[in-house]
Amino acid sequence: MAYAVGRQTLAGAPHINNDALIAKGFTPDILKKVESALPTAFSLENAFSTWVLGKDYISEKLGVGKDEIEAPGFRLLSRLGFSEDQIRAAEDYVCGTMTLEGAPYLKDEHLPVFDCANRCGRKGKRFIAIDGHLKMMAAAQPFISGAISKTVNMPADSSVAEVQDTYMKGWKLMLKGVALYRDGSKLSQPLASMQEETTVAPVEVQRAAQQIAERIVFRYVTGRRKLPERRTGYTQKAVIGGHKIYLRTGEYGDGSLGEIFLDMHKEGAAFRSLMNCFAIAVSLGLQHGVPLDEFVDAFVFTRFEPNGMVDGHKKVRMATSIVDYVFRELAISYLGRSDLAHVDESDDVRSDDIGKPTVQDDGWTKNERPRRR
């Protein structure tokens, strides 16, 4: 078990242990912080990060420059003089190999029992073959009326031809459904995956770079962007199906939307509280980076009471619900979504309107110019 999951302590670790770190300048208090971080660390480097040790300690006590600490790809253990082989050996001892291949007391004939859908850890080579997934489903399919909720796992280096071949085999085995998953495709998986140990020849550098680039993931979740204490915005009053609503907005300094308030003072306390909570939830989403157009696409055309004709708005004349009205208004005002408006400001909507007066060169409008006698 220790071979697979690690010992979660530096005591007895090869190369990188308490004695070696004390010789590098670590104090007992700092070593306690490292030990407390090891049980949840995916790699040894995580326990020696600036979040655990602190930038001030690394700079002042270990003699590492602050510019070097903040540089991308900074690794403290390498900076302290430990080689890659030493770091790898200590990491296998502390964090484990994440596989049973090579574990003591296990023979090769025992390993198939422990095979998983994908290769395990950095050293793992074994995995359940693609045909194994298909044949398992084929054995059960005659006794099941629908498709089987079972994913066929494929290695990260699987080709398009292998995907086509898998679907063809599934059809020949009379499977009613085949779901494939290529290792590394899930958005969060690269956070816990490791680069395989491969020796890249100069002629294969471009291909290796492409494989590594496929593992890059952008982080879209951001911290909360708070609004200024004094902010601008507008208040829009409207009546929807006989129900009066006030929409109030709050803006950032650049004019972008940051919060909304909804008030329906004549409604019941429960409905009014729900609308207030909904406005708070939308405001928090906006301040955490959720684009306004995502809210618009999600809530426009929602249908529930009250709904109907809209009075008090120049561009929105009908709403299927209060939420539909709110996000139509926000889309028109902040996104320029004229496609969600019912009336354009330049349109003549009155039945008796024959056109707006046009100012002539002499300063008179067409209808106001005195007639010649």
Outline of this structure?
This protein is of the alpha+beta class and 373 residues long.
Helix and strand layout, with pairings?
Layout (H helix, E strand, L loop, with lengths): L1 H4 L12 H6 L4 H10 L6 H4 L2 H4 L1 H6 L5 H5 L5 H4 L4 H12 L34 H11 L10 E4 L5 H13 L6 E4 L22 H9 L21 E6 L2 E9 L5 E7 L5 H19 L4 H8 L8 E4 L6 E2 L2 H13 L39
Helix pairs in contact: 14-15
Radius of gyration: 33 Å
Percent range for β-strand residues: 5-15%
Structural class: alpha+beta
Morphology call: flat
Protein described:
The chain has 373 residues and is of the alpha+beta class. It has 15 helices and 7 strands. The strands form 2 sheets. A 5-stranded antiparallel beta sheet has the order 5-4-3-6-7. 15% of the residues are buried. The C terminus is likely disordered.
Features:
flat, 7 strands, two-stranded parallel sheet, 373 residues
